[in-house]
TrEMBL record:
UniProt source species: Nicotiana tabacum
Domain Cupin type-1: 63-217
Pfam families from the UniProt entry: Cupin_1
Molecular function per GO: manganese ion binding
Keyword Disulfide bond: yes
Gene3D superfamilies: Jelly Rolls
Stored CDD domains: cupin_OxOx (cd02241)
Cellular-component GO terms for this entry: apoplast
Protein name (database record): Germin-like protein
Binding site for Mn(2+): H111, H113, E118, H163
Signal peptide start-end: 1-22
Keyword Magnesium: no
């Protein structure tokens, strides 16, 4: 009986631990305004705190999200991010924000955020959005969840999963998204696979995608646009 109780306790602690680490760690103080630590000798998981005595309101403020991003690019979208890199007051708070602008038929290409869940709200236009589940069991395919969103609609992309948004309308579209990390990161799938530096060995990619190496060589020779 004692052994069962011990095993149950360990299981509960494991579950609680996994939940508590689902996003950035909780802060241990009211705030920890980040300083520019690019030249600092100390490295921390986040940013070094600014002296609270010299913190002011501007450390928690950023303007400019009313300005549309430039969508004149290969994918027809632009992501304007607000994270700890440009809003120091976000440090340790476990949240960030992006504005996404889409040209007509513009795409925010398939990508992942390794450290954040994303909740997206559409302000203008019509978006086709979706995400793909992680590797399933044997003889199963990765399940795709999709939805068409209109102004006022909200959709959630779970942490780490591949997702995308595509403007299916003839007019521009605008969305805002909140992310559960001060620095969520982004891995754009095509850019990472075919535009890495140095390139991934074409034998590896040809076998992975089950195509001729000439196809891989062609894809690796293309310019992969970063819309962030």
């Amino acid at each position: 009986m004692a052994l069962k109780s011990f095993v149950l306790t360990i299981a509960i602690l494991a579950i609680v631990s996994s939940i508590s680490h689902a996003s950035d760690p909780s802060p241990l103080q009211d705030f920890c305004v980040a300083v520019n630590d690019s030249m600092a000798a100390v490295f921390v998981n986040g940013k070094i705190c600014k002296d609270p005595k010299v913190v002011n309101a501007d450390d928690f403020f950023k303007s400019g999200l009313n300005i549309p991003g430039n969508t004149s690019n290969q994918v027809g979208s632009a992501v304007t991010a607000v994270n700890v890199g440009n809003l120091p007051g976000l440090n340790t708070l476990g949240i960030s924000l992006v504005r996404i602008d889409y040209a007509p038929y513009g795409l925010n290409p398939p990508h992942t955020h390794p450290r954040a869940t994303e909740v997206l709200a559409v302000l203008e236009g019509t978006l086709y959005v979706g995400f793909v589940l992680s590797n399933p069991g044997p003889n199963m395919k990765n399940k795709l969840f999709t939805k068409i969103l209109k102004p006022g609609d909200v959709f959630v992309f779970p942490i780490g999963l591949i997702h995308f948004q595509f403007n299916i309308g003839k007019n521009k579209a605008v969305a805002f998204a909140g992310l559960s990390s001060q620095n969520p990161g982004v891995i754009t799938i095509a850019n990472a696979v075919f535009g890495s530096d140095p390139p991934i060995n074409d034998d590896v990619l040809a076998k992975a995608f089950q195509v001729d190496k000439k196809v891989i060589d062609y894809l690796q020779s293309q310019f992969w646009w970063d819309n962030n």
